[in-house]
Design goal:
By secondary structure, this protein is mainly α. The protein has one domain: Four Helix Bundle (Hemerythrin (Met), subunit A), CATH 1.20.120. Helix 1 packs antiparallel against helix 3, helix 1 packs antiparallel against helix 7 and helix 3 crosses helix 4. It is globular. 28% of the residues are buried.
């Protein structure tokens, strides 16, 4: 793996999660009513997902694994390769689903779900980042 590239993406991911933690209000109604909060939270969530996908795809490419056909498949390949456990892989694939809705506006965003992600599932991104940080620190680019 390109250590510098992955380190930069991990730092960006950390920043996105931090912004979400700072800007996601405790009360759901504040998020539902505030366009500023919605914009900041949705943008940083979509960035966090994209950065995670980028890191996964970089790992896959650098380990001569077949390229994923979809963003979600990248996490499935990491699971199959023993890098991610099944639970984290599934949660990251669900995050891709949110990203697709937010970016492509497939349907109206349900701010209650976004609020739940922000209040209870940011640890998924932290766990993913921690795994890749450990690989970088080990210096071998593998789990």
């Amino acid at each position: 793996m390109d250590r510098e590239l992955v380190a930069e993406k991990l730092e960006s991911l950390r920043h996105c999660v931090e912004r979400i933690e700072e800007r996601c209000p405790v009360q759901l109604d504040v998020l539902e009513e505030s366009l500023d909060h919605q914009d900041i939270v949705a943008l940083n969530l979509t960035r966090a997902v994209q950065l995670s996908v980028d890191i996964a795809a970089h790992f896959i490419a650098s380990h001569s694994m077949p390229p994923p056909q979809t963003m979600g498949e990248a996490f499935l390949q990491l699971q199959t390769g023993g890098i991610l456990d099944q639970a984290l892989s599934e949660r990251m694939r669900k995050a891709v689903g949110f990203r697709n809705i937010a970016v492509h506006n497939y349907e109206v965003i349900n701010w209650r779900i976004v609020h739940q992600i922000c209040r209870h599932h940011l640890s998924d991104f932290k766990d993913f980042a921690q795994l890749f940080s450990k690989m970088l620190n080990a210096g071998n680019g593998s789990a």
